[in-house]
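User: Continuing from earlier, I have the next pair ready.

Assistant: Great, send them over.

User: Here they are, in order.

Assistant: Folding the first of the pair now:
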Amino acid sequence: MVVIYLLSLALFVSSGLAEPSRKDQRGPVFRTEPSSRVEFSNSSGTELRCNADGIPTPRLTWQTREGGNTRDVAGLRYTRSDGTLVFPPFARNDYRQDVHDTVYQCLAANTVGSIVSREVHVRGVIKQRFNPQVYDDFVVRGNTAVLRCHLPTFVKEYVSVDSWIRNDDYVLKMTDTRN
C-alpha cells in the first residue's frame, strides 16, 4: 500500500501537476516607471521607484546605460528590497558624476522574461551660494545701455533673473518698463 502511494505521488510530481503550468505564468509588466528626467538637490536626495507585476513575481534591479548592474555606493546610492533606487542627501565633496549625473534603467525579470524601463536621466545638483556678475560698461548719456547678468555655468539653467537693484536700492522688476 505504501509503495502504491509513493508510486502515484512520483507520477503526480513528474507529470508537472505539482507545479504551476507555464500557461499560469506571465512575463513582467511595469506598474510604475520612473520619469525620464529626475533632478534633485544634494541636500534633499531622491528616490527612483519602479514596480512590476508578473507570475512569478519579477525581481527588480537597476542598470546603467551601458547595461551593467548598479552596485550600492556607501552613502551615495543603494537599492531597497522593494526595488527603489535611493540617492540619499550627500555632502558637496562627495559628488560623483558616475552616480549623480548619469542614466539608469529599471530591469524587471522573472522566469518567463524580462523588460527594461525607459532611460532615466538623473542629475544631482549641488546647493551652493554664487554671486552673479554685472560688468561696468561705458555709455554716453541719452543712449541705451544693455547690462547683462553673468551667471556661473553650473547654475544657468536653474536661475532666471526677475529683477535688478540699483545703487540707490531701487528695485527694477523685469516687467517694469518705466526706467
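And the other member of the pair:
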Amino acid sequence: MDIEELRRYCLSLSEETEEKFPFQQFKATRDVLAFYINGHIFCYFDINDLTHVTVKCRPEKVTELIEQHDFIDHPYNGNAKYWISIDALCADKQILKKLIKDSFSLVADKYNKMGGRQNKN
C-alpha cells in the first residue's frame, strides 16, 4: 500500500477522522502523519517510511499477531502493550486495512463511552 492509498483509507473510516502532523517541534518526527478520531490517535507513520505504520491493538492480540506475521512487530515508538508496527510495504493489504480499522474502532469506542464525539461509521 502506498502513502496515498493508506491516507485515503484512514480518512474513509469516518467523516470525523482528522489528519495532522503533530510532532513539528521535533526534527526527527516532523514527517510523522497521525490520524485521529475523537481527538485521539489511532494510526501514525512517517510519510517517507511506510515500514513502521503504527496502530493501536488489543493487548491480548499483540504477541499473536507478531508471531503470525513477518510484517508486524513491536512499535518503533509507542507502548508495546497497546500498539503494533506494520510494514505497509510488505503487509497483506487486507490485513493492514483490518488492523487499521480495528485500531480506529478501539479508539472510537473508548472515547465515545467517555463522552467523546460520536463517529458516523
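Worth noting for the second one:
Confidence is low (pLDDT under 50) at residues 116-121. Helices lie at 3-12, 59-68, 93-113.
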